[in-house]
Design brief:
The protein has 302 residues and is an alpha+beta fold. It has ten helices and four strands, in the order ααβαβααβαβαααα. The chain folds into two domains: 183 residues, no CATH class; 106 residues, Alpha-Beta Plaits, CATH 3.30.70.3040. Strands 2-3-1-4 form a four-stranded antiparallel beta sheet. Helix 1 packs across helix 9, helix 2 packs across helix 9 and helix 7 packs parallel to helix 10.
């Protein structure tokens, strides 16, 4: 089989079915982009878990005057109760790693800084905040030790575990990533059907050429290879565009804008795109070859 003949047939087929080839490229690009987003979202969840679970804190909020917590009775925590809580926390090392005290004024100032661009930051008042002890843990799984020790203790309004909040957030992120993968699976099905339709129409439009090739004794591989190559080339172009979009999304959106806006959060980077890239390209090539081969067996008898 001559390489020049195969390339000539490939270019001829792409030129004759340019609109269908472009459709395959676009559908493949969209499906692989969605699949890549789903895979990268899962990697982002894993990255954030590794980052945040090492920084999980248990917050022991104290009572303030007029507090609505049942354990407070509307009274503020006394100085003696505050020192008792601090002393008890210090005695729990380990699993407690560090203990930080945050006053009511400091909590209010931190809230104002975090929500400076939000109406919440303008409407909040200092009376809505309570002083607290921020407890860093050596092992995030030991949070229940602190919670059980201080829940309902004198002077304690409530005990908040950040791990529970993070678990709910990560569960939501997992749902989003799986939804993107499910949507990409639907788009992959559309790509398969479009590939099969393209090959069928191409085979029908070139039935005279294939008939002549049969008469002169051309092998099955010689006849089928140009059809397969057309699908593979279109699919690889679509996957390449998808990877380019993923690279731009991560490079300028995640690693660029988000990493500058949220300095205290870990994000994925371009290496993560490079890690999923071979899987996407390999999957697309395999999908194109299998789809082409099965379609040709049915519509191109040689």
């Amino acid at each position: 089989m001559r390489l020049g003949f195969v390339l000539g047939e490939l270019l001829t087929g792409l030129r004759r079915n340019l609109s269908m080839a472009v459709s395959v490229v676009l559908v493949t690009m969209i499906s692989m982009y969605l699949l890549g987003l789903g895979l990268l979202a899962q990697r982002q969840v894993d990255t954030m878990k590794d980052y945040w679970y090492d920084r999980v804190q248990v917050s022991v909020f104290l009572c303030v005057q007029g507090s609505q917590y049942a354990n407070c009775g509307g009274k503020a925590t006394t100085a003696a109760q505050r020192e008792q809580i601090r002393s008890q926390l210090e005695q729990m090392k380990p699993p407690v790693k560090d203990v930080f005290y945050e006053s009511q004024a400091e909590a209010f100032a931190r809230f104002k800084e975090q929500f400076k661009n939000s109406p919440l930051g303008e409407q909040a008042t200092e009376r809505a905040f309570a002083d607290s002890f921020r407890v860093s843990l050596a092992d995030a799984s030991k949070y229940d030790v602190v919670v059980s020790s201080f829940q309902g203790a004198p002077g304690v309004g409530r005990v908040q575990d950040q791990k529970q909040l993070l678990d709910r957030f990560f569960a939501f992120m997992n749902v989003v990533s799986w939804a993107a993968i499910a949507l990409s699976a639907l788009m992959v099905l559309c790509a398969i059907l479009l590939m099969a339709t393209t090959i069928r129409q191409t085979a029908f439009s070139r039935r005279r050429e294939t008939g002549i090739m049969r008469l002169v004794g051309a092998s099955n591989a010689t006849i089928q290879l140009p059809f397969v190559m057309e699908t593979v080339v279109s699919s690889i172009l679509g996957a390449g565009l998808a990877l380019t979009l993923l690279w731009a999304t991560v490079r300028y959106g995640v690693s660029g804008y988000l990493s500058r806006a949220l300095l205290d959060t870990a994000f994925i980077g371009v290496p993560d795109v490079l890690a999923v890239g071979p899987w996407i390209l390999g999957g697309v090539m395999g999908l194109a070859v299998v789809t082409s081969w099965l379609t040709l067996r049915r519509y191109l008898r040689v």
